Amino acid sequence: MTNGSPTKNHKPTPKGLLGEELISSQLITREQLKQALIRRSQVDMPIGSLLIKMGFVSTDDMLAFLSKKFDVPSVNIFTKYIPQDVINLIPLEKIKKYKILPISHQNNTLTLGMVSPQDFMTISDLEFTMGMKIKPVIIPFFMMEAALSLLSSSFEDGISGETVKNIALEDKNETHTSPKIEALLAYLVKAEASDMLLTAGVPPSIKVSNQVKRLATVSLTPADTELYARELLVNRDEDWEKFIKTNDLDIAVTYPHLGRFRINLYRQRHSISITVRRLNERLPSLKDLRLPEWIREYALKPQGLILVSGPAGHGKSTTLCAMVDIINTTRRCNIITLEDPVEYLHKHKKSNINQREIGRDTETFEKGMRAVFRQSPDVIVIGELRDKESFEIALRAASTGHLVLSTMNAANSTSVIRIIVNMFQENDQKLITMLLADSLLLSLAQRLVPTRDKSGQILALERFTNSNRISNLIREGKLHQIRAQMETGCEEFTPIDLSLADLYKTGKIDFEDGLTYSVNKQLYQEVTGIKAQ
């Protein structure tokens, strides 16, 4: 009898000889135990795991046997998900020392998985120090060992029963196996995270509200990340050759059943690391992004320069995408984009839209910009302004009848002007300043701030629009006066500090997060009415 329930009467066996006790309970035969012991001499694996893996006893029968033996309920953690906040109820050193695992917490009672559920000293100690009732349940040693090995991997996203099962039933001398890349991308989508980080030495990680959380799986090896990199490449030989030469590569890939992703490959410490950004296939609207409707008016201007600034990962490309879609939906014009890589795929609506990818459709931003005037553009969209040549061409285009939209890395909406001007030689700066004063329409600076409940992020926006007064200040090089004289807000300039203060006062963000992202911390504190400690 190998699959039935344990018999009521079985002969006692020496403590710890699990195989003998299972034979006495008629759950396995002597021959099956012999085969398992032979196999154990070949692999590093507990006897309980081997008996289940070899099909000699079912997981449920093993749990029923142990439950009867210890006279406590059993838990099959192969089928459980244990949240990180439950695990954090007990310090990691105690969990590993006592071989225990918090399972669930309800009504001041902690359900605690234990290898030795009759260890009343440990139970009493935990009840005293934690001030809650402990309900012990039995977890087999091989399950517990697998779960604790995950905890030592320093992940931060709870324990997945499926992962525990894979580790518990895996031969230690078998080839290392890691999650499939499509499974990881599916998890990224399901978790509604912004990014996935694949780095050798730690488990796969996701970013939620700009916080890194490690998945409940084993750490990746350099071989794993190289395999992922090769699998993600669109044109495998060509892209791999390019990456080998530069040690950096940006691409975008589409998986029909999962969506579109932006991929960045880079080298670090003699291995490959990968950042995967999830892209929404549905083009976002101003309302989706919590952007004000007045942006539409600027997006539909026939000529001029619109800049969106902020750190990497704070939604600049997405804001640009929303403005391009407004133009595409409303105007009948020719739109040329230069992107590295192409992230959002636009369809032709009222406008013709041509999306050129750097490295595929044109060699560099500079070459793409120099060729753009021969393509009869009405609207030019540049993924990111990076060098002096591109800035110069963009400014000339904006001042000669084209609408130019782009992003750049800058601390705030006014510093973009100083950054652009300082790129040029002193004898060219006066001309560039004049071009900026004449062509700049709108400069936005944005930050994505964690929401109060930490379930997502919310946009804080700084607005800087051109006017006769602003244009004169730019020409005269008096940029510092814009922030100094207008910091409490006016028609042309609304500092991000006011946006952050409003988000705090309406209960959308924590005070400390607003303070972190503010430019003028004193102004932010004055408007919120709170002094930082």
Structure write-up:
By secondary structure, the protein is of the alpha/beta class. The termini are far apart. α17 runs antiparallel to α18 and α18 (426-439) runs antiparallel to α19 (468-475). It contains 23 helices and 19 strands. It folds into 4 domains: 1-68, no CATH class; 72-174, GMP Synthetase, Chain A, domain 3; 181-279, Beta-Lactamase (2-Layer Sandwich), CATH 3.30.450; 301-495, P-loop containing nucleotide triphosphate hydrolases (Rossmann fold).
Search tags:
23 helices; Beta-Lactamase; disordered N terminus; GMP Synthetase, Chain A, domain 3; 19 strands; alpha/beta; 4 domains; 40% helix; six-stranded antiparallel sheet
- Averaged pLDDT: 86
The CATH architecture term of the largest domain is 3-Layer(aba) Sandwich
Q: Indicate the CATH topology of the largest domain.
A: Rossmann fold
Q: Residue ranges: pLDDT <50 for 5 or more in a row?
A: 1-16
Classify the secondary structure makeup into a structural class. alpha/beta
CATH class of the largest domain: Alpha Beta
Main beta sheet strand tally, sense and closure: 8 strands, mixed
* The CATH homology group name of the largest domain: P-loop containing nucleotide triphosphate hydrolases
- Which term fits the overall shape? elongated
